[in-house]
Amino acid sequence: MSDPRPIGVFDSGVGGLTVVRRLREEFPRESFLFLGDTARLPYGTKSPETVERYSLANVGFLLARDVKFLVVACNTASAVALPAIEAISPVPVVGVIEPGAEAAVATGRRRIGVIGTEATIASGAYARAIARRAPGREVIARACPLFVPLAEEGWTDNAVARETAEIYLSPLRGKIDALVLGCTHYPLLKDTIAATVPGVLLVDSADAVCEAVRPLLSPARRNEDESEYHVCVTDAAERFRAVAERFLGRPIDRLEHVEITGNV
Amino acid sequence: MSDPRPIGVFDSGVGGLTVVRRLREEFPRESFLFLGDTARLPYGTKSPETVERYSLANVGFLLARDVKFLVVACNTASAVALPAIEAISPVPVVGVIEPGAEAAVATGRRRIGVIGTEATIASGAYARAIARRAPGREVIARACPLFVPLAEEGWTDNAVARETAEIYLSPLRGKIDALVLGCTHYPLLKDTIAATVPGVLLVDSADAVCEAVRPLLSPARRNEDESEYHVCVTDAAERFRAVAERFLGRPIDRLEHVEITGNV
């Protein structure tokens, strides 16, 4: 018997919809409840303590809506808050760091670059996860804070995006063979990033998450039509709809505005 | 008799320290209590409802610390939350929009440009405040969302900053005679902005606030040495220290981390 409850996914904002998009492609008969914490984004520039506090509030919201397991689509939250989330969650929790590290190692490439937010890179989570699997690999990590606002502005392939990528990534050129896109926003800049580090294999952790989710699913019996797809945000600014549709690659029927109260 | 209580100043982040810096230069014998809501920044991309909720929480914090009046250094909060703040505050409240509009009109220039966050520009607050004072002036407003992360990254005068300014401001070239920098972050980009719209007079609302504050002050009697200068932040990520020092133009001895709880 398949479990009809939705898969709960959260991100600091709507960037995590890139993960939902991939999961939907792979598991079209599953239902999804997505929460974007748009009232408190971004997480990537904030302290681990604050990110953990917000993450636990998001998890509380999703658990109250009876999700069958949790996907932490946010790299920053996965990097700094996963142990705290696992400690309170009665359902399984999938982050994006371990699957991303797994996919990076699976490329077989020797020198692995990792880019992400300041908080993700400062945590060292990707480097540790890669070292655990393949101690011999070299890892070079670099924070690229401006990639997030560029993706949100829709400037993914103009002179500003190219020059920004050049500043962040030229120090990595010739030093890496694969590059982990360690932030849900970065896939939107994929072409610009690829052009800046030619010959480097890009690893999208959104792809890797599907493999981590698969063992948690029993074969779905219902039709695709019955699967539900629900997007909640903590701030309903109209801009988030445009950004969300850019990430999801299609229009969104309804953004539900929810409030998460308490010590957040 | 002078009132020894501090002037309470808040901003979404530490950008408002540009306002504190100007106030300190002008009123060196006053004490200041600054609150940067770094856990929830930015405000400029969020909805008026969320910005109002956060602003009222900040005001509650400052009032509980017995400030003699409030300066809302954040343009976005001033644009969308000032009536709500005035409704709950027992002490006077000074925002940055009215002083900025006053200063823009006082330039005597006919065609006035305004740049700010998406929320500030969407509110139309500057255009209304200018029209009330000088109905004949033309106002052209433009949101420049990437200026905030550029200023925080310290990229104020490189190729990325110049190209970004070109994209945002070239449509205003030849159409404006003065330009209001309607965000506390923008003064850091002053040189780049000035070079993009040559011949245009820049108006910094941080300067204008001093004139609005002056009537609220009685002559200070104490020595400059006795004045206190206290910076609080809701998120203590180390990056905010660097950003704060960039805005303040000098080292900060102590950033106090405070938590604002409740429905925020």
* Biggest interface, residues from each chain: A-B, 35 and 35 residues
Summed up, the domain count of chain A is 2
Number of strands of chain A: 10
CATH architecture of the largest domain in chain A: 3-Layer(aba) Sandwich
User: Oligomeric state of the chains?
Assistant: homodimer
| Helix content percent band of chain A | 40-55%
The number of helical segments of chain A is 11
Mean pLDDT of chain A: 92
CATH class of the largest domain in chain A: Alpha Beta
- Give the overall shape of chain A: globular
| Rg of Cα set of chain A | 18 Å
The major pleated sheet of chain A works out as: 6 strands, parallel
Q: Tell me the strand order in the biggest sheet of chain A.
A: 4-3-1-2-9-10
CATH topology descriptor of the largest domain in chain A? Rossmann fold
Helix and strand element order of chain A: EHEHEHEHEHHEHHEHEHEHE
Low-confidence stretches of chain A: none
Structural class of chain A: alpha/beta
Topology of this structure?
The structure is a homodimer of 264-residue chains.
Chain A (H helix, E strand, L loop, with lengths): L6 E5 L5 H10 L5 E5 L11 H17 L5 E3 L2 H14 L4 E2 L2 H10 L4 E6 L1 H6 L1 H9 L4 E6 L3 H7 L5 H11 L8 E5 L7 H7 L4 E4 H9 L15 E5 L4 H11 L6 E3 L7
Parallel strand pairs in A: 1-2, 1-3, 2-9, 3-4, 5-6, 5-7, 7-8, 9-10
Helix pairs in contact in A: 1-10, 2-3, 4-6, 4-10
